Amino acid sequence: DGGITQSPKYLFRKEGQNVTLSCEQNLNHDAMYWYRQDPGQGLRLIYYSQIVNDFQKGDIAEGYSVSREKKESFPLTVTSAQKNPTAFYLCASSIFPGRGPNEQFFGPGTRLTVL
Amino acid sequence: AQSVSQHNHHVILSEAASLELGCNYSYGGTVNLFWYVQYPGQHLQLLLKYFSGDPLVKGIKGFEAEFIKSKFSFNLRKPSVQWSDTAEYFCAVNAGGTSYGKLTFGQGTILTVHP
Question: For A53-57, which contacts have Cβ atoms below 8 Å and span 24 or more sequence positions?
Answer without folding.
Answer: A56/B100
